[in-house]
Design brief:
The protein is an alpha+beta fold. The protein folds into 3 domains: about 140 residues; about 90 residues, Elongation Factor Tu (Ef-tu), domain 3; about 55 residues, no CATH class. It is built from 8 helices and 10 strands. A 7-stranded antiparallel β-sheet has the order 6-1-2-5-4-3-7, sandwiched between helices. Strands 8-9-10 form a 3-stranded mixed β-sheet, covered by helices on one side. About 25% of the residues are buried.
Length: about 300
Amino acid sequence: MALLNMAFITLLSLKNTPLAYLTAYSYERLNALHQVGGYTTMIHVFIHMIVFVKYFSGPKLYILLEHENIYGMVAGASMFVTVMAAITLRRVRYELFYITHVVMFIIIVVMAGMHRPHLAEKALIITIVAGSIWAADRLLRGSRILWYSRGNRATITPLPNGGTRIVLSRSPSRAIPGNHCFVWIPKIRLLETHPFTIVSTTPTSLELVVAAYDGFTNDLHNYAIANPGVTLQASVDGSYGVTPNFANTADKIIFVAGGSGATFTFGVVLDTLKKLGASTKTTIDFVWCVKEHGMIFIFVT
């Protein structure tokens, strides 16, 4: 059960998961199931360990020192580290959590495969499937990054209150305002890509607005301040997400945004207006709440 759950949560974690097409939900909407599946897998691992030790307690306990069982204990310990990192680091140090998550997953797959290394026992097949679909997703994403790196440049401009505007010279063919894409700027972080909401897109450009917090976004903003308007090598992977075509689904649309959440909402509003064209049948209300110096300002258009 632990191995089957591991394969299932791996499928849920893929950025290009087939479940997105079957359910009409993008990977980030499926992340709640991924988390529940992860905790369930950890419970099954604990049950497996307890029953195993209980069964072989006494004179047979030496079996725990066999290589296959040591590999299993390493896999279980790595699973525990993964769960604890999700609980303690995910909201406060996301980059550290993500690196830990990926490294621990690789260790879990390798150690689980070595724990039950015989194809006849079927457990190895499940492990191979989990590792293969994860590697295929990484290969697909890496191929996109490589493809869109050809002749692609990012112009970065600092904005007031910690914002940074990014305009890429190449845009993915399926990019839609309101969706998000993963941006790679090696000058800022060589081995990292980060997701940002698409504000607007044309056949020859892609615009993003990034709020500076910590890690990559803070380094990006500081670099933009020191070099306003600089052009850097960049690439993009995406886009991801499911944004409804509001122009075809409603007579009245109300958008509500808070603070930097307007990054998403502005993009969707502009794209909706573009799709509506000269139509006067659909009305749009846009409510934006901003907190500044302890006061809340509400803008309605």
